[in-house]
Amino acid sequence: MARAGVTAERLTEAAAELADEVGLENLTVSELARRFGVKDASLYSHIRNAHELRVRVAGLALAELADLAAAALAGRAGKDALVAFAGTYRDYAREHPGRYTAMQVDLDPDTEAAGAARRHSDMTRAILRGYSLAEPDQTDAVRLLGSVFHGFVSLEMAGGFRHHPRAADESWSRMLDTIDVALRNWPAERAEPDASHG
Amino acid sequence: MARAGVTAERLTEAAAELADEVGLENLTVSELARRFGVKDASLYSHIRNAHELRVRVAGLALAELADLAAAALAGRAGKDALVAFAGTYRDYAREHPGRYTAMQVDLDPDTEAAGAARRHSDMTRAILRGYSLAEPDQTDAVRLLGSVFHGFVSLEMAGGFRHHPRAADESWSRMLDTIDVALRNWPAERAEPDASHG
DNA sequence: AGCTTTTACCTAGGAGTCCTAGGAAGAGAA
DNA sequence: TTCTCTTCCTAGGACTCCTAGGTAAAAGCT
User: Fold this and answer.
1) Are B150 and A154 in contact (CB under 8 A)?
2) ipTM exceeding the 0.95 mark
3) Cβ of B139 and A171 within 8 Å?
4) Among A45, B17, B21, B80, whose Cα sits 20 to 30 Å from the Cα of B94?
């Protein structure tokens, strides 16, 4: 009887694929074993439990997406970089919904997955170099960008924009226009009401 | 033997409570039955399946939150309304993480839960009355607000802001300042690159 | 009050998943 | 070739979801 050649890496990769197909909540150890032509119990020498499987998928996704975002960012600056970076997130979520969902799991700080998470915030900071924001505004802006990207993608995935004729693509690009303007007009510590601009 | 007096409503309420305690992913029919002092099979005369339980929790949360938001909105306008509305979302997510997570489930359009979802977007539109935006910009702005609120709350819940000294509260209020400014300076159809402002 | 109808809850059980314990067989090293 | 390590196995317990069919309590009717 030849062996199936299961390793933690191949397992993680296959788990990511499976999660994209059936949704993260339907990612099961049993089905994964079935795809490797192996009994479910056999997988527990490679992974500790089902939760670890999800954490591994999260780590994979975080690293993959960081690579894609880095590539998209190369040679771009300012709004150009903003749009490219944001587009990478949205495209990744559309192509890999299971992996994207996995990224939201609560991972402990000192794993390599947390390192990938750090790359994301570093890249977001890099985008902000085009907008000259000092701390602590920079951190606030990083969080704003993260919120906007993730929020839109998350709502779109959940079907929140499906029941209105306005195309999500349009709203997406107008939102990025708005954020671009907002970053250039970053308000001072106390923002005075000022309607004279529009 | 006295009956436990289970109804779909009491079940949904208890399910929401349970989800808040142990997380939506750990909401099980069995545990719910246990809390009612009843066998799990007995619950299936009240609910169709475990998924319907989650959908019901989503509907409950959507309606609850809509009521809270409406109350917060009463008598406020402009940025005041924006901040109050946003705060209601964040507070609700902190107090009811299970219910909040449930709201993200993909619910079909013609249930009463979808009606509650509609109330949310209507209220968001109401906030925008203070910023005089015409369609289709208004829809884009509704989606921007939804993205920003949900994105921040979601990342905060996932622990995304825990490993940085800057307090999430600060970032939150600065984000709302920024969004307020952005809504007042809503860009025209084609935003020209313009770095002369900062 | 007695009768019927409804329904809340039950027992029994199958199917699926997660995970542990301990054993057997393949693959590489001595 | 034999020893050792690792991969994969069988067996099985605990839990969850859900169905089918039965019993008893409540509610409605005469």
Assistant:
1) yes
2) no
3) yes
4) B80
